[in-house]
Design a protein that fits this description.
By secondary structure, this protein is of the alpha/beta class. It has two domains: 199 residues, Vaccinia Virus protein VP39 (Rossmann fold), CATH 3.40.50; 72 residues, rRNA adenine dimethylase, C-terminal domain (Helicase, Ruva Protein, domain 3). The protein is 38% helix and 17% strand. The structure holds S-adenosylmethionine (SAM). The site of S-adenosylmethionine has 22 residues, from β1.
Length: 294
């Protein structure tokens, strides 16, 4: 790390912006540990979400082929750019932009390998970032991301627990998740209220069981957890799925799922079965011709 973040900011009369979730990592050995545990190799293309002042960017530049460092805050990006130039680091492409306006497929198009994603994620966008990465799953190999502890817990939760959520189901279907480290709140400035956790997501090349319609699966999971206190039948009635009661009852029967159950009791495989059966019965609003369920 070049200088402590408080020195870099106060020298420019700046302060950390809470609205952008700015809690800077101040421990170089934690950054090194995250990178080491990621197993990133010298020929890997990396995208870093929220580069900030470069706590991860600089060691990543040392470990990878190229780092696309995305930072929304222009003032921070300016400080980082100065430091990259000062150190003569040439393999960092700094992009002053929002991660949600960053075309990951376009970045990956020029690379020989799928992307490695890193980030000490701002709390306020952590869920959206994961949905975004699932959308870009074809070009992502692995993501090593830091979250507030309770967010991480929700992502790895299993069925039958209160923390099991829409994101747990989506992520566990598309990725293999590993917890790699806990990072104490005192290792950030300003120090957040809770510790952080690093999770490693390996994007599966062939998730199983096979889904017939990925968008329909996303809609079913969203609908079921959107009304998680209701039975699945009631949760899925009068929603954007547009399927009537009789047909839904038939679908649940064909899928072998009791419609009185609640979303939080269904395994990922059961959600896939439900989505595939809805698809076989014509999909959303009965818009598809019926097809046999495999
Ligand atoms: N990586 C740095 C570190 O570990 O010290 C900074 C981490 S800080 C928790 C999150 C960073 O994400 C901040 O620099 C913030 O400005 C940036 N950020 C917030 N929202 C963003 C967005 N939508 N797109 C890109 N960067 C964003």
């Amino acid at each position: 790390m070049h200088f402590p973040p408080w020195k870099l900011l106060t020298a420019r009369h700046l302060r950390p912006r809470k609205a952008l979730g700015q809690n800077f990592l101040i421990d170089p050995s934690t950054a090194e540990m995250i990178i080491r545990k990621s197993g990133v190799s010298r020929n890997a293309p990396v995208v870093e979400i929220g580069a900030g002042l470069g706590a991860l960017t600089l060691p990543l530049a040392d470990a990878a082929k190229v780092v696309y460092a995305i930072e929304k805050d222009g003032a921070l990006a300016g400080i980082l750019e100065y430091e990259l130039n000062r150190q003569g680091i040439r393999n960092v492409v700094l992009k002053r932009q929002d991660i949600f306006e960053t075309d990951l497929a376009a970045i990956a198009a020029g690379q020989e390998r799928r992307l490695r994603i890193f980030g000490n994620l701002p709390y306020y966008i952590s869920s959206q970032v994961l949905i975004y990465l699932i959308g870009a799953r074809e070009v992502v190999e692995q993501a090593d991301l830091m979250f507030q502890k309770e967010v991480a817990r929700r992502l790895i939760a299993g069925p039958g627990t209160k923390s099991y959520s829409r994101l747990s189901v989506m992520l566990q279907y598309y990725t293999e998740i590993r917890r790699t480290a806990t990072v104490g709140a005192h290792l950030f400035w300003p120090s957040p209220k809770v510790d952080s956790e690093v999770l490693q997501f390996h994007f599966k090349t062939a998730p199983s069981p096979v889904l017939r319609d990925h968008a329909l699966f996303a809609a079913v999971v969203k609908t079921a957890f959107g009304r998680r206190r209701k039975t699945l039948l009631n949760a899925m009635l009068s929603t954007e799925l547009g399927i009537g009661r009789e047909e839904l009852i038939n679908i649940f029967r064909a899928a072998g799922i009791d419609p009185r159950r609640r979303a939080e009791s269904l395994t990922v495989e059961a959600f896939v079965r439900l989505a595939n059966t809805i698809d076989a019965y014509g999909g959303k609003n009965g818009s598809k011709p019926p097809a046999p369920v495999r």
